[in-house]
Amino acid sequence: MTFAKPQTLQSISEIIGAKMIGNADFPVLGTNEIHRVKEGEIVFVNHPKYYDKALNSAATVILIDKEVACPEGKVLLVSKDPFGDFNKINKHFTKITNFGETLHELEVGDNTQIHSSVVIGNNVTIGSNCIIFPNVVIGDRTVIGDHVIIQSNTVLGGEAFYYRKLDGNFDRLVSIGNVIIENNVEIGNNCTIDRGVTDSTIIGEGSVLDNQIQIGHDTIIGKKCLIASQTGIAGCCVIEDEVTIWGQVGMASGVRVESGTVLLAKCGVNRDLKKGTYFGSIAEEFKQYLRKEVKLKNLK
Fold this sequence. Notes:
13% of the residues lie in helices and 32% in strands. It has helices at 9-16, 51-55, 82-93, 286-298; strands at residues 2-8, 19-21, 27-31, 41-45, 61-64, 75-78, 107-108, 113-114, 119-120, 125-126, 131-132, 137-138, 143-144, 149-150, 155-158, 163-166, 169-172, 178-181, 186-187, 192-194, 200-203, 208-209, 214-215, 220-221, 226-227, 232-233, 238-239, 244-245, 250-251, 256-257, 262-263, 268-269, 277-279, 284-285. The longest helix is centred in the C-terminal third of the chain and has 13 residues, at 286-298. The chain is globular, with a radius of gyration of 21 Å.
């Protein structure tokens, strides 16, 4: 999330009651998660295992639960609860409506058809020549390009599946990002695309999604990808251009799939993949998989 206007380290400190380490006038431009964070933004960390990653990331403001040596050119906000305070900052600068308020700031382009049963949140932009079928739900801040087709019962901009366990219960990290659907995308029936936690979940230009697909928060789907039904893609993945994903593929969070890759049905992807064709519950190159199967059969 980028703030509407730059803040200072002191102003953020006052919102959450955290101790400042660094120049009180240090500029703070927004918040972000570790995988998308940029200079001027806040990232939070609340476990020693991840201190180095956060401190050495592009973030210049580190919201942390322990006072540590601060890298040059950066500042710290020391908090007893970085997770909760990250939520507090995000909610302070982003209005959470949950469809509870009158629609406002909706922009719709020429020749776009939206069925009367479609539910649209706030600050939504929809381009020209789109077709949006019955019972689609479009969450706050969603951006839809031109020539987009969205089939019935699809949900764009649901809350991210991002929790911590606190006092025996699950505590949600509030999602204040959005979904961006680029031009010439087609999305099938009953798909669910979660909005980013602090950034955007993106479906690239010309990509086509079949029915019953789940795409997690902050995932980026490249241009002209083809994704078949019942695929589940976790958060923070990067699917590069012209990737083909067949039915019931499951993908763990944070993986990258190189352009031109083909994932055959029921692949399980738990690591980054170079360009190729893959198959198997733990994805392996298809030719290698076939050779292994032949060897196993010859053992009988």
